[in-house]
């Protein structure tokens, strides 16, 4: 059972009863004002997040690897949209559970997130395979560092209490010294 859906209304009722006990009708006015302020704060945050996301391409993120490191099981879709500053590309049929969204960066690395009931249940980082030019040290491009490698990451229910960095496993293949 999800107690968070019961906890907020119960807290509002307790707050209102306490306000009535202490200040009569002035207390009720105070309680109503506090609840309205709380609702407006959440509404303003929601609108601000969606306004920032509207200015970015759907399904784009600055760095899929950094997004993968920041994700935590149980965060809401709105929290993930706030982190990416972009709406995710819907991969599942519309209005079905679970909802699957993906975000891709400029390097074609992709994070695919699965949301059940609006909460993140698992995610997977997919990186593009190294090309044959990259394997033999030829080709063009920019960047620093040595070696090539692939990263595959998957979050499962057993990862819930572990560090976010443990979701990525790397298998680098160092290049020969020049």
Question: Can you describe what's shown?
Answer:
The chain is α+β, with helices and mostly antiparallel strands. It has 2 domains: 51 residues, no CATH class; 110 residues, no CATH class. Helix content is 39%, strand content 20%. The protein has 5 helices and 6 strands. The protein has a 6-stranded antiparallel β-sheet, with helices on one face. Helix 1 packs antiparallel against helix 2 and helix 2 crosses helix 4. The longest helix has 30 residues. 14% of the residues are buried.
Summarize the structure.
This protein has 178 residues and is α+β, with helices and mostly antiparallel strands.
Beta-strand content: 15-25%
Q: Segments where pLDDT lies below 50 for 5+ residues?
A: 138-150, 156-174
Largest sheet: 6 strands, antiparallel
Count of beta strands: 6
Distance between the termini: 60 Å
Class from secondary-structure proportions: alpha+beta
Query: What string, H for helix and E for strand, traces the elements in order?
Result: HHHHEEEEHEE
Number of individual domains:
2
């Amino acid at each position: 059972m999800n107690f968070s859906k019961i906890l907020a209304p119960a807290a509002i009722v307790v707050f209102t009863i306490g306000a009535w006990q202490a200040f009569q009708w002035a207390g009720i006015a105070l309680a109503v004002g506090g609840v309205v302020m709380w609702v407006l704060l959440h509404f303003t945050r929601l609108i601000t997040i969606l306004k920032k996301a509207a200015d970015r391409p759907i399904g784009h993120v600055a760095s899929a690897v950094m997004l993968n490191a920041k994700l935590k099981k149980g965060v809401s879709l709105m929290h993930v949209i706030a982190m990416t500053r972009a709406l995710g590309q819907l991969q599942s049929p519309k209005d079905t559970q679970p909802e699957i969204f993906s975000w891709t960066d400029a390097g074609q690395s992709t994070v695919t997130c699965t949301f059940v009931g609006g909460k993140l249940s698992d995610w997977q980082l997919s990186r593009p395979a190294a090309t044959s030019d990259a394997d033999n040290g030829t080709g063009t491009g920019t960047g620093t560092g040595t070696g090539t490698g692939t990263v595959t990451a998957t979050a499962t229910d057993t990862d819930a209490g572990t560090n976010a960095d443990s979701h990525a496993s790397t298998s680098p293949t160092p290049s020969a010294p020049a």
